[in-house]
Structure prediction request, 584 residues.
Amino acid sequence: MEKTDKIYKIRHSLAHILAMAVLDKYPEAKITIGPAVENGFYYDFDFGDEKISEADLKDFQKKMKKIISQKIDFVEKEVSKEEALEKFADNEYKKELIEEISQNGEKITFYQSGDFEDLCEGPHIENSSEIVTDAFKLTKIAGAYWRGDEKNKMLTRIYGVAFGTPEELKAYEEMIREAEKRDHRKIGKELDLFTFSDLVGSGLPMFTPKGTLFRDLVVERIQKIQDKFGWKKVTIPHITKSDLYKVSGHWDKYKDDLFHVKGKSDTEFVMKPMNCPHHTQIFASSPKSYKDLPIRYAETTMVYRDEQAGELLGLSRVRSITQDDGHAFITDEQIEEEIKNIVSIIKEFYTSLGMLKDGNYWVSVSVHDSKHPEKYLIAEDGLFLKAEEIMKKIAEDENLPYKVVEGEAAFYGPKLDFQFKDALGREWQLGTIQLDFSMPKRFGLEYTDKDGGKKTPVMIHRAIAGSLERFMSVMIEHTAGNFPFWMSPVQVAVIPVGEFANDKAGEIFEKIKEAGFRVELYDENEGFGKRVRKAKKEKLPYFIVIGEKDIETGKVTLENRDTGESKQMTVDEVIEKFQKENNQ
Ligand SMILES: [Zn+2]
Ligand SMILES: [Zn+2]
Prediction:
Protein backbone atom coordinates (compact mmCIF):
# COMPACT_ATOMS: atom_id res chain seq x y z
CA MET A 1 0.00 0.00 0.00
CA GLU A 2 1.49 3.31 -1.11
CA LYS A 3 0.49 6.66 0.33
CA THR A 4 -0.85 7.66 -3.04
CA ASP A 5 -3.15 4.61 -3.27
CA LYS A 6 -6.84 5.35 -3.01
CA ILE A 7 -7.25 2.68 -0.33
CA TYR A 8 -4.50 4.28 1.75
CA LYS A 9 -6.34 7.60 1.61
CA ILE A 10 -9.63 5.93 2.51
CA ARG A 11 -8.11 4.10 5.49
CA HIS A 12 -6.35 7.18 6.74
CA SER A 13 -9.47 9.33 6.30
CA LEU A 14 -11.46 6.76 8.28
CA ALA A 15 -9.03 7.24 11.15
CA HIS A 16 -9.94 10.94 11.18
CA ILE A 17 -13.65 10.13 10.99
CA LEU A 18 -13.20 7.71 13.90
CA ALA A 19 -11.65 10.55 15.92
CA MET A 20 -14.67 12.72 15.03
CA ALA A 21 -17.07 10.02 16.24
CA VAL A 22 -15.10 9.49 19.45
CA LEU A 23 -14.99 13.22 20.25
CA ASP A 24 -18.71 13.44 19.62
CA LYS A 25 -19.37 10.98 22.47
CA TYR A 26 -16.32 11.77 24.64
CA PRO A 27 -15.44 15.45 24.08
CA GLU A 28 -12.77 15.26 26.80
CA ALA A 29 -10.80 12.48 25.06
CA LYS A 30 -7.38 13.51 23.76
CA ILE A 31 -6.55 12.52 20.21
CA THR A 32 -2.98 11.42 19.44
CA ILE A 33 -2.11 9.59 16.22
CA GLY A 34 -4.22 7.69 13.69
CA PRO A 35 -2.42 6.10 10.74
CA ALA A 36 -3.54 3.84 7.93
CA VAL A 37 -2.17 0.33 8.39
CA GLU A 38 -2.31 -2.95 6.50
CA ASN A 39 -6.00 -3.85 5.99
CA GLY A 40 -7.28 -0.81 7.84
CA PHE A 41 -6.44 1.90 10.33
CA TYR A 42 -6.27 2.74 14.00
CA TYR A 43 -6.40 5.77 16.24
CA ASP A 44 -4.86 6.12 19.71
CA PHE A 45 -6.80 8.10 22.32
CA ASP A 46 -6.21 9.18 25.86
CA PHE A 47 -9.62 8.73 27.49
CA GLY A 48 -8.42 9.88 30.91
CA ASP A 49 -10.18 7.76 33.53
CA GLU A 50 -12.92 6.68 31.13
CA LYS A 51 -13.06 2.96 30.18
CA ILE A 52 -14.19 2.17 26.66
CA SER A 53 -16.30 -0.90 25.90
CA GLU A 54 -17.50 -2.95 22.95
CA ALA A 55 -20.80 -1.01 23.16
CA ASP A 56 -18.85 2.18 22.52
CA LEU A 57 -17.38 0.63 19.35
CA LYS A 58 -20.91 0.12 18.04
CA ASP A 59 -21.80 3.74 18.76
CA PHE A 60 -18.61 5.01 17.14
CA GLN A 61 -19.22 2.94 14.03
CA LYS A 62 -22.80 4.17 13.73
CA LYS A 63 -21.69 7.75 14.12
CA MET A 64 -18.92 7.26 11.53
CA LYS A 65 -21.46 6.06 8.97
CA LYS A 66 -23.56 9.11 9.66
CA ILE A 67 -20.57 11.43 9.21
CA ILE A 68 -19.64 9.70 5.95
CA SER A 69 -23.17 10.10 4.61
CA GLN A 70 -22.90 13.87 5.14
CA LYS A 71 -20.39 14.00 2.27
CA ILE A 72 -17.84 16.10 4.14
CA ASP A 73 -14.73 17.49 2.45
CA PHE A 74 -11.15 16.93 3.58
CA VAL A 75 -9.21 20.18 3.25
CA GLU A 76 -5.50 20.69 3.85
CA LYS A 77 -4.13 23.92 5.27
CA GLU A 78 -0.69 25.02 6.34
CA VAL A 79 -0.46 26.60 9.80
CA SER A 80 2.25 28.30 11.81
CA LYS A 81 3.80 26.57 14.79
CA GLU A 82 2.09 29.09 17.09
CA GLU A 83 -1.34 28.46 15.58
CA ALA A 84 -0.81 24.72 15.84
CA LEU A 85 0.29 24.90 19.48
CA GLU A 86 -2.66 27.13 20.32
CA LYS A 87 -5.15 24.79 18.70
CA PHE A 88 -3.79 21.84 20.73
CA ALA A 89 -2.99 23.82 23.89
CA ASP A 90 -4.56 21.10 26.09
CA ASN A 91 -3.08 18.16 24.21
CA GLU A 92 0.46 17.28 25.29
CA TYR A 93 0.70 14.56 22.64
CA LYS A 94 0.00 16.82 19.71
CA LYS A 95 2.24 19.48 21.19
CA GLU A 96 5.11 16.99 21.30
CA LEU A 97 4.51 16.14 17.62
CA ILE A 98 4.28 19.79 16.60
CA GLU A 99 7.59 20.56 18.33
CA GLU A 100 9.21 17.67 16.49
CA ILE A 101 7.86 18.63 13.08
CA SER A 102 9.05 22.17 13.54
CA GLN A 103 12.46 21.02 14.77
CA ASN A 104 12.84 18.94 11.62
CA GLY A 105 12.15 22.09 9.66
CA GLU A 106 9.06 20.58 8.04
CA LYS A 107 5.90 22.56 7.38
CA ILE A 108 2.98 22.01 9.76
CA THR A 109 -0.31 21.10 8.13
CA PHE A 110 -3.84 20.51 9.41
CA TYR A 111 -6.56 18.56 7.70
CA GLN A 112 -10.08 19.76 8.23
CA SER A 113 -13.11 17.50 7.82
CA GLY A 114 -16.45 18.95 8.92
CA ASP A 115 -15.74 20.96 12.05
CA PHE A 116 -12.86 18.66 13.02
CA GLU A 117 -9.22 19.57 12.56
CA ASP A 118 -6.25 17.28 12.97
CA LEU A 119 -2.53 17.73 12.74
CA CYS A 120 -1.70 15.67 9.68
CA GLU A 121 0.58 15.48 6.67
CA GLY A 122 -2.03 13.70 4.55
CA PRO A 123 -2.84 12.63 1.97
CA HIS A 124 -6.59 12.18 2.26
CA ILE A 125 -9.58 11.57 0.04
CA GLU A 126 -11.32 14.73 -1.12
CA ASN A 127 -14.77 13.84 0.12
CA SER A 128 -16.17 11.22 2.49
CA SER A 129 -18.49 10.00 -0.29
CA GLU A 130 -15.44 8.14 -1.66
CA ILE A 131 -15.74 5.70 1.25
CA VAL A 132 -17.91 2.62 0.79
CA THR A 133 -19.74 2.45 4.13
CA ASP A 134 -20.28 -1.32 3.99
CA ALA A 135 -16.61 -1.97 3.39
CA PHE A 136 -15.27 -0.87 6.78
CA LYS A 137 -15.69 -2.02 10.35
CA LEU A 138 -14.33 -1.16 13.77
CA THR A 139 -12.80 -4.36 15.09
CA LYS A 140 -11.19 -4.06 18.49
CA ILE A 141 -9.89 -2.02 21.40
CA ALA A 142 -6.37 -2.52 22.71
CA GLY A 143 -3.86 -0.78 24.94
CA ALA A 144 -0.87 0.92 23.32
CA TYR A 145 1.90 2.98 24.85
CA TRP A 146 2.34 6.50 23.53
CA ARG A 147 5.00 6.17 20.80
CA GLY A 148 5.32 2.44 21.62
CA ASP A 149 7.45 3.18 24.67
CA GLU A 150 6.73 1.26 27.89
CA LYS A 151 7.82 4.26 29.95
CA ASN A 152 5.01 6.35 28.48
CA LYS A 153 1.33 6.46 29.27
CA MET A 154 -0.88 3.60 28.09
CA LEU A 155 -3.38 4.87 25.54
CA THR A 156 -6.51 3.25 24.10
CA ARG A 157 -6.14 2.08 20.53
CA ILE A 158 -9.24 1.52 18.42
CA TYR A 159 -8.71 -0.63 15.33
CA GLY A 160 -10.73 -0.74 12.15
CA VAL A 161 -10.51 -2.62 8.88
CA ALA A 162 -11.39 -1.05 5.55
CA PHE A 163 -11.46 -2.13 1.93
CA GLY A 164 -12.62 -0.89 -1.43
CA THR A 165 -15.68 -3.15 -1.61
CA PRO A 166 -17.91 -5.10 0.82
CA GLU A 167 -16.78 -8.32 -0.91
CA GLU A 168 -13.16 -7.62 -0.03
CA LEU A 169 -14.16 -6.99 3.57
CA LYS A 170 -16.04 -10.30 3.64
CA ALA A 171 -13.08 -12.20 2.18
CA TYR A 172 -10.81 -10.61 4.76
CA GLU A 173 -13.11 -11.55 7.63
CA GLU A 174 -13.28 -15.11 6.32
CA MET A 175 -9.48 -15.22 6.23
CA ILE A 176 -9.31 -13.98 9.83
CA ARG A 177 -11.79 -16.63 10.99
CA GLU A 178 -9.75 -19.31 9.25
CA ALA A 179 -6.53 -17.91 10.77
CA GLU A 180 -8.10 -18.12 14.24
CA LYS A 181 -9.01 -21.74 13.65
CA ARG A 182 -5.44 -22.41 12.53
CA ASP A 183 -3.80 -20.39 15.30
CA HIS A 184 -0.60 -22.29 16.10
CA ARG A 185 -1.05 -21.68 19.83
CA LYS A 186 -4.39 -23.50 19.73
CA ILE A 187 -3.36 -26.35 17.42
CA GLY A 188 0.04 -26.68 19.10
CA LYS A 189 -1.77 -27.38 22.35
CA GLU A 190 -4.25 -29.81 20.74
CA LEU A 191 -1.40 -31.72 19.11
CA ASP A 192 0.69 -31.50 22.29
CA LEU A 193 3.76 -29.99 20.59
CA PHE A 194 4.92 -27.28 23.00
CA THR A 195 4.09 -25.55 26.25
CA PHE A 196 4.87 -22.48 28.32
CA SER A 197 5.26 -22.15 32.08
CA ASP A 198 5.00 -19.07 34.25
CA LEU A 199 7.85 -20.43 36.32
CA VAL A 200 10.12 -20.57 33.27
CA GLY A 201 9.00 -17.25 31.88
CA SER A 202 7.22 -15.75 28.92
CA GLY A 203 8.68 -16.16 25.47
CA LEU A 204 10.51 -19.33 26.54
CA PRO A 205 8.68 -22.27 24.94
CA MET A 206 9.37 -25.85 25.94
CA PHE A 207 8.87 -28.66 23.48
CA THR A 208 7.12 -31.90 24.42
CA PRO A 209 8.35 -35.29 23.11
CA LYS A 210 6.15 -34.87 20.03
CA GLY A 211 7.24 -31.28 19.44
CA THR A 212 10.87 -32.28 19.86
CA LEU A 213 10.42 -35.09 17.38
CA PHE A 214 8.98 -32.57 14.91
CA ARG A 215 12.03 -30.34 15.37
CA ASP A 216 14.44 -33.26 15.01
CA LEU A 217 12.71 -34.40 11.83
CA VAL A 218 13.08 -30.95 10.29
CA VAL A 219 16.72 -30.67 11.32
CA GLU A 220 17.54 -34.19 10.09
CA ARG A 221 15.94 -33.48 6.74
CA ILE A 222 17.96 -30.31 6.29
CA GLN A 223 21.11 -32.06 7.49
CA LYS A 224 20.60 -34.83 4.98
CA ILE A 225 20.27 -32.34 2.13
CA GLN A 226 23.17 -30.12 3.14
CA ASP A 227 25.50 -33.07 3.79
CA LYS A 228 25.72 -33.39 0.02
CA PHE A 229 27.14 -29.88 -0.13
CA GLY A 230 29.85 -30.32 2.48
CA TRP A 231 28.26 -28.75 5.55
CA LYS A 232 29.82 -29.97 8.80
CA LYS A 233 28.18 -29.78 12.21
CA VAL A 234 29.85 -27.77 14.97
CA THR A 235 28.89 -27.08 18.58
CA ILE A 236 29.37 -23.92 20.59
CA PRO A 237 28.54 -22.90 24.19
CA HIS A 238 25.49 -20.75 24.82
CA ILE A 239 27.32 -18.07 26.74
CA THR A 240 30.33 -16.00 25.85
CA LYS A 241 32.46 -13.20 27.17
CA SER A 242 31.16 -9.84 26.05
CA ASP A 243 34.56 -9.31 24.35
CA LEU A 244 33.37 -11.44 21.43
CA TYR A 245 30.69 -8.88 20.56
CA LYS A 246 32.98 -5.98 21.23
CA VAL A 247 35.21 -7.29 18.44
CA SER A 248 32.28 -8.18 16.15
CA GLY A 249 30.92 -4.67 16.63
CA HIS A 250 27.53 -5.76 17.95
CA TRP A 251 28.13 -4.70 21.53
CA ASP A 252 27.34 -1.00 21.36
CA LYS A 253 24.23 -1.51 19.31
CA TYR A 254 22.72 -4.56 20.95
CA LYS A 255 24.01 -4.85 24.52
CA ASP A 256 20.66 -3.76 25.94
CA ASP A 257 18.84 -6.52 24.09
CA LEU A 258 21.01 -9.31 25.51
CA PHE A 259 20.68 -11.44 28.64
CA HIS A 260 23.66 -10.71 30.85
CA VAL A 261 25.08 -13.56 32.91
CA LYS A 262 26.68 -13.03 36.29
CA GLY A 263 29.44 -15.47 37.21
CA LYS A 264 31.87 -15.64 40.15
CA SER A 265 34.54 -13.58 38.46
CA ASP A 266 34.33 -10.03 37.23
CA THR A 267 34.29 -11.22 33.62
CA GLU A 268 31.21 -10.05 31.80
CA PHE A 269 29.26 -12.87 30.18
CA VAL A 270 26.13 -12.84 28.02
CA MET A 271 23.80 -15.42 26.50
CA LYS A 272 24.60 -15.60 22.79
CA PRO A 273 22.16 -13.68 20.56
CA MET A 274 23.81 -15.08 17.40
CA ASN A 275 26.29 -17.78 16.44
CA CYS A 276 28.40 -16.17 13.75
CA PRO A 277 31.11 -14.70 15.99
CA HIS A 278 31.60 -18.05 17.76
CA HIS A 279 31.91 -19.77 14.38
CA THR A 280 34.63 -17.34 13.29
CA GLN A 281 36.64 -18.55 16.27
CA ILE A 282 36.41 -22.16 15.12
CA PHE A 283 37.65 -21.03 11.70
CA ALA A 284 40.49 -19.12 13.34
CA SER A 285 41.54 -22.08 15.49
CA SER A 286 43.97 -23.43 12.87
CA PRO A 287 45.81 -22.01 9.84
CA LYS A 288 43.81 -22.27 6.64
CA SER A 289 44.93 -22.50 3.04
CA TYR A 290 42.91 -21.67 -0.09
CA LYS A 291 42.74 -25.45 -0.59
CA ASP A 292 40.69 -25.81 2.60
CA LEU A 293 37.99 -23.42 1.40
CA PRO A 294 35.01 -23.41 1.33
CA ILE A 295 34.70 -24.25 5.01
CA ARG A 296 31.10 -24.71 6.07
CA TYR A 297 29.89 -24.87 9.67
CA ALA A 298 26.27 -25.77 10.42
CA GLU A 299 24.61 -25.79 13.79
CA THR A 300 21.05 -25.91 15.00
CA THR A 301 21.21 -24.06 18.27
CA MET A 302 19.36 -21.60 20.44
CA VAL A 303 20.12 -17.92 20.65
CA TYR A 304 18.64 -15.58 23.24
CA ARG A 305 17.25 -12.10 22.85
CA ASP A 306 15.55 -10.03 25.51
CA GLU A 307 12.44 -9.10 23.53
CA GLN A 308 9.94 -6.82 25.25
CA ALA A 309 7.35 -8.86 27.12
CA GLY A 310 4.51 -7.09 25.30
CA GLU A 311 5.82 -8.23 21.92
CA LEU A 312 6.05 -11.94 22.70
CA LEU A 313 3.51 -14.07 20.86
CA GLY A 314 3.27 -17.86 20.95
CA LEU A 315 6.12 -19.31 18.91
CA SER A 316 6.16 -16.39 16.47
CA ARG A 317 8.03 -14.08 18.80
CA VAL A 318 10.14 -15.73 21.51
CA ARG A 319 13.16 -15.05 23.69
CA SER A 320 14.85 -18.39 23.00
CA ILE A 321 15.20 -18.83 19.27
CA THR A 322 16.52 -22.01 17.64
CA GLN A 323 18.36 -21.13 14.46
CA ASP A 324 19.23 -23.70 11.85
CA ASP A 325 22.31 -21.65 11.31
CA GLY A 326 25.21 -22.06 8.96
CA HIS A 327 28.31 -20.08 7.98
CA ALA A 328 30.46 -20.64 4.95
CA PHE A 329 33.96 -19.15 4.65
CA ILE A 330 34.97 -18.86 1.02
CA THR A 331 37.31 -17.19 -1.45
CA ASP A 332 36.09 -14.34 -3.66
CA GLU A 333 35.93 -16.73 -6.61
CA GLN A 334 33.69 -19.16 -4.75
CA ILE A 335 30.82 -16.72 -4.14
CA GLU A 336 28.72 -17.82 -7.10
CA GLU A 337 29.01 -21.54 -6.62
CA GLU A 338 28.43 -21.36 -2.88
CA ILE A 339 25.27 -19.26 -3.19
CA LYS A 340 24.06 -21.61 -5.91
CA ASN A 341 24.58 -24.59 -3.61
CA ILE A 342 22.65 -22.99 -0.77
CA VAL A 343 19.83 -22.10 -3.17
CA SER A 344 19.75 -25.80 -4.12
CA ILE A 345 19.44 -26.81 -0.45
CA ILE A 346 16.58 -24.36 0.11
CA LYS A 347 14.83 -25.50 -3.08
CA GLU A 348 15.09 -29.18 -2.20
CA PHE A 349 13.88 -28.65 1.35
CA TYR A 350 10.81 -26.58 0.41
CA THR A 351 9.99 -28.91 -2.46
CA SER A 352 9.66 -31.67 0.14
CA LEU A 353 7.10 -29.46 1.88
CA GLY A 354 5.17 -28.83 -1.32
CA MET A 355 5.82 -25.11 -0.86
CA LEU A 356 8.08 -24.46 -3.82
CA LYS A 357 5.27 -23.96 -6.30
CA ASP A 358 4.87 -21.14 -8.80
CA GLY A 359 2.87 -18.33 -7.30
CA ASN A 360 3.47 -19.60 -3.77
CA TYR A 361 6.88 -18.11 -3.26
CA TRP A 362 9.22 -15.41 -4.44
CA VAL A 363 12.78 -14.42 -3.83
CA SER A 364 13.93 -10.99 -2.77
CA VAL A 365 17.41 -9.93 -3.78
CA SER A 366 18.32 -7.14 -1.37
CA VAL A 367 20.84 -4.72 -2.82
CA HIS A 368 22.33 -1.42 -1.67
CA ASP A 369 20.59 1.93 -1.99
CA SER A 370 22.14 3.48 -5.08
CA LYS A 371 21.43 6.96 -3.72
CA HIS A 372 23.44 6.28 -0.56
CA PRO A 373 26.35 4.00 -1.46
CA GLU A 374 28.31 5.48 1.45
CA LYS A 375 26.11 3.53 3.88
CA TYR A 376 27.50 0.23 2.66
CA LEU A 377 30.78 -1.58 2.76
CA ILE A 378 31.33 -1.12 -0.95
CA ALA A 379 35.07 -1.57 -1.00
CA GLU A 380 37.35 -0.73 -3.87
CA ASP A 381 37.63 -4.39 -4.80
CA GLY A 382 34.05 -4.15 -6.12
CA LEU A 383 33.08 -7.42 -4.46
CA PHE A 384 29.86 -6.08 -2.92
CA LEU A 385 28.51 -4.97 -6.29
CA LYS A 386 29.77 -8.11 -7.98
CA ALA A 387 27.97 -10.22 -5.37
CA GLU A 388 24.74 -8.35 -6.11
CA GLU A 389 25.11 -9.17 -9.79
CA ILE A 390 25.87 -12.80 -8.94
CA MET A 391 22.69 -13.05 -6.85
CA LYS A 392 20.60 -11.64 -9.69
CA LYS A 393 22.26 -14.00 -12.15
CA ILE A 394 21.57 -17.02 -9.96
CA ALA A 395 17.93 -15.98 -9.50
CA GLU A 396 17.74 -15.69 -13.28
CA ASP A 397 19.59 -18.97 -14.04
CA GLU A 398 17.56 -20.93 -11.49
CA ASN A 399 14.30 -19.52 -12.83
CA LEU A 400 13.38 -18.09 -9.43
CA PRO A 401 10.53 -15.56 -9.33
CA TYR A 402 12.59 -12.68 -7.93
CA LYS A 403 12.42 -9.00 -7.18
CA VAL A 404 15.39 -6.73 -6.63
CA VAL A 405 14.75 -4.70 -3.49
CA GLU A 406 16.88 -1.60 -3.40
CA GLY A 407 18.14 -0.37 -0.04
CA GLU A 408 17.40 -3.61 1.80
CA ALA A 409 20.95 -4.96 1.82
CA ALA A 410 22.80 -4.91 5.14
CA PHE A 411 25.73 -2.51 5.30
CA TYR A 412 28.06 -5.53 5.19
CA GLY A 413 26.57 -7.31 2.17
CA PRO A 414 23.63 -8.11 -0.11
CA LYS A 415 21.22 -10.94 0.65
CA LEU A 416 18.80 -13.29 -0.99
CA ASP A 417 15.66 -14.30 0.91
CA PHE A 418 12.96 -16.83 0.12
CA GLN A 419 9.44 -15.58 0.87
CA PHE A 420 6.68 -18.17 1.03
CA LYS A 421 2.93 -17.73 0.94
CA ASP A 422 0.96 -19.86 3.37
CA ALA A 423 -2.47 -21.38 2.79
CA LEU A 424 -4.08 -18.09 3.87
CA GLY A 425 -2.00 -16.01 1.50
CA ARG A 426 0.24 -14.58 4.22
CA GLU A 427 3.91 -14.19 3.37
CA TRP A 428 6.75 -15.52 5.51
CA GLN A 429 10.43 -15.07 5.00
CA LEU A 430 12.02 -18.44 5.72
CA GLY A 431 15.24 -19.36 3.90
CA THR A 432 17.95 -16.73 3.74
CA ILE A 433 21.45 -16.28 2.27
CA GLN A 434 23.46 -13.29 3.40
CA LEU A 435 26.91 -12.19 2.30
CA ASP A 436 29.25 -10.60 4.82
CA PHE A 437 32.34 -8.61 3.87
CA SER A 438 32.78 -7.22 7.37
CA MET A 439 32.92 -9.87 10.08
CA PRO A 440 35.92 -11.83 8.74
CA LYS A 441 37.93 -8.59 8.68
CA ARG A 442 36.87 -7.64 12.21
CA PHE A 443 38.09 -10.97 13.54
CA GLY A 444 41.22 -10.89 11.42
CA LEU A 445 40.35 -14.16 9.70
CA GLU A 446 42.72 -15.16 6.95
CA TYR A 447 43.85 -17.95 4.70
CA THR A 448 46.99 -18.48 2.67
CA ASP A 449 46.35 -17.92 -1.02
CA LYS A 450 47.97 -19.63 -4.02
CA ASP A 451 50.74 -17.04 -4.15
CA GLY A 452 51.53 -17.56 -0.46
CA GLY A 453 49.98 -14.21 0.53
CA LYS A 454 47.36 -13.80 3.26
CA LYS A 455 43.77 -13.11 2.24
CA THR A 456 40.52 -12.46 4.08
CA PRO A 457 37.74 -14.96 3.37
CA VAL A 458 34.19 -13.90 2.50
CA MET A 459 31.56 -15.12 4.95
CA ILE A 460 28.05 -16.31 4.13
CA HIS A 461 25.34 -16.56 6.78
CA ARG A 462 22.51 -18.86 5.84
CA ALA A 463 19.38 -20.41 7.32
CA ILE A 464 17.20 -22.95 5.57
CA ALA A 465 14.12 -23.12 7.82
CA GLY A 466 14.84 -19.83 9.60
CA SER A 467 14.11 -20.21 13.31
CA LEU A 468 12.60 -23.56 14.24
CA GLU A 469 10.04 -21.87 16.48
CA ARG A 470 8.73 -19.64 13.74
CA PHE A 471 9.00 -22.45 11.22
CA MET A 472 6.84 -24.66 13.44
CA SER A 473 4.25 -21.91 13.86
CA VAL A 474 4.15 -21.28 10.10
CA MET A 475 3.88 -25.00 9.31
CA ILE A 476 1.08 -25.47 11.85
CA GLU A 477 -0.92 -22.57 10.44
CA HIS A 478 -0.13 -23.39 6.82
CA THR A 479 -1.24 -27.04 7.14
CA ALA A 480 -3.75 -26.53 9.99
CA GLY A 481 -1.74 -29.22 11.79
CA ASN A 482 -1.98 -31.71 8.90
CA PHE A 483 1.77 -32.14 8.53
CA PRO A 484 3.28 -33.94 5.55
CA PHE A 485 3.92 -37.62 6.19
CA TRP A 486 7.67 -37.30 6.74
CA MET A 487 7.20 -34.47 9.25
CA SER A 488 4.45 -36.04 11.35
CA PRO A 489 5.61 -37.00 14.87
CA VAL A 490 3.19 -39.94 14.66
CA GLN A 491 2.61 -41.18 11.12
CA VAL A 492 0.06 -43.91 11.59
CA ALA A 493 -2.08 -45.60 14.26
CA VAL A 494 -3.18 -49.23 14.16
CA ILE A 495 -6.74 -49.62 15.48
CA PRO A 496 -8.28 -53.03 16.11
CA VAL A 497 -12.06 -52.97 15.73
CA GLY A 498 -12.54 -55.03 18.87
CA GLU A 499 -10.65 -57.19 21.33
CA PHE A 500 -10.70 -60.14 18.95
CA ALA A 501 -8.43 -58.19 16.58
CA ASN A 502 -5.90 -57.06 19.20
CA ASP A 503 -3.34 -59.78 18.48
CA LYS A 504 -3.43 -59.20 14.76
CA ALA A 505 -3.19 -55.44 15.29
CA GLY A 506 -0.19 -55.93 17.58
CA GLU A 507 1.54 -57.99 14.90
CA ILE A 508 0.97 -55.33 12.25
CA PHE A 509 2.07 -52.57 14.60
CA GLU A 510 5.38 -54.40 15.19
CA LYS A 511 5.94 -54.92 11.49
CA ILE A 512 5.42 -51.26 10.63
CA LYS A 513 7.57 -50.17 13.55
CA GLU A 514 10.36 -52.48 12.44
CA ALA A 515 10.20 -50.92 8.98
CA GLY A 516 11.18 -47.64 10.67
CA PHE A 517 7.91 -45.72 10.81
CA ARG A 518 6.42 -43.82 13.73
CA VAL A 519 3.40 -45.89 14.58
CA GLU A 520 1.12 -46.18 17.60
CA LEU A 521 -1.18 -49.01 18.62
CA TYR A 522 -4.62 -47.89 19.80
CA ASP A 523 -5.77 -51.05 21.58
CA GLU A 524 -7.13 -49.37 24.72
CA ASN A 525 -10.31 -50.65 26.27
CA GLU A 526 -12.35 -47.90 24.67
CA GLY A 527 -15.02 -47.86 22.00
CA PHE A 528 -13.76 -48.26 18.45
CA GLY A 529 -15.39 -44.97 17.39
CA LYS A 530 -13.63 -43.10 20.16
CA ARG A 531 -10.23 -44.42 19.07
CA VAL A 532 -10.88 -43.46 15.45
CA ARG A 533 -11.85 -39.98 16.58
CA LYS A 534 -8.59 -39.77 18.52
CA ALA A 535 -6.57 -40.64 15.38
CA LYS A 536 -8.44 -37.92 13.51
CA LYS A 537 -8.03 -35.36 16.27
CA GLU A 538 -4.29 -36.03 16.34
CA LYS A 539 -4.34 -35.37 12.58
CA LEU A 540 -2.37 -38.54 11.83
CA PRO A 541 -1.70 -38.88 8.09
CA TYR A 542 -2.96 -42.49 8.21
CA PHE A 543 -4.66 -44.98 10.43
CA ILE A 544 -5.08 -48.68 9.88
CA VAL A 545 -8.22 -50.53 10.89
CA ILE A 546 -8.12 -54.25 11.65
CA GLY A 547 -11.54 -55.92 11.48
CA GLU A 548 -12.93 -59.39 10.90
CA LYS A 549 -12.69 -59.15 7.15
CA ASP A 550 -9.10 -57.93 7.33
CA ILE A 551 -8.12 -60.94 9.41
CA GLU A 552 -9.85 -63.29 6.96
CA THR A 553 -8.20 -61.82 3.87
CA GLY A 554 -4.83 -61.18 5.55
CA LYS A 555 -5.05 -57.53 4.56
CA VAL A 556 -5.55 -54.24 6.43
CA THR A 557 -7.72 -51.18 5.80
CA LEU A 558 -5.64 -48.03 5.36
CA GLU A 559 -7.46 -44.72 5.90
CA ASN A 560 -5.98 -41.57 4.39
CA ARG A 561 -6.36 -38.28 6.31
CA ASP A 562 -6.04 -36.03 3.27
CA THR A 563 -8.27 -37.83 0.78
CA GLY A 564 -10.63 -39.48 3.26
CA GLU A 565 -10.23 -42.69 1.25
CA SER A 566 -9.93 -46.13 2.78
CA LYS A 567 -8.25 -48.97 0.95
CA GLN A 568 -7.61 -52.63 1.62
CA MET A 569 -3.99 -53.61 1.13
CA THR A 570 -1.37 -56.00 2.47
CA VAL A 571 1.01 -54.77 5.16
CA ASP A 572 3.89 -55.00 2.69
CA GLU A 573 2.03 -52.73 0.31
CA VAL A 574 1.41 -50.26 3.14
CA ILE A 575 5.10 -50.23 4.03
CA GLU A 576 6.10 -49.73 0.42
CA LYS A 577 3.68 -46.81 0.14
CA PHE A 578 5.05 -45.25 3.33
CA GLN A 579 8.62 -45.62 2.13
CA LYS A 580 7.75 -43.75 -1.04
CA GLU A 581 6.03 -40.96 0.85
CA ASN A 582 8.82 -40.60 3.38
CA ASN A 583 11.27 -39.83 0.60
CA GLN A 584 9.12 -37.14 -0.93
ZN1 LIG B 1 -4.58 12.49 8.48
ZN1 LIG C 1 25.42 -15.59 11.04
Summary: The first helix runs from residue 6 to 25. The chain has a mean pLDDT of 94. Residues 12, 16, 111, 118, 120, 122, 124 surround zinc ion (ligand 1) (CB under 6 Å). The chain has three domains: 6-181, 189-235+284-479, 490-582.
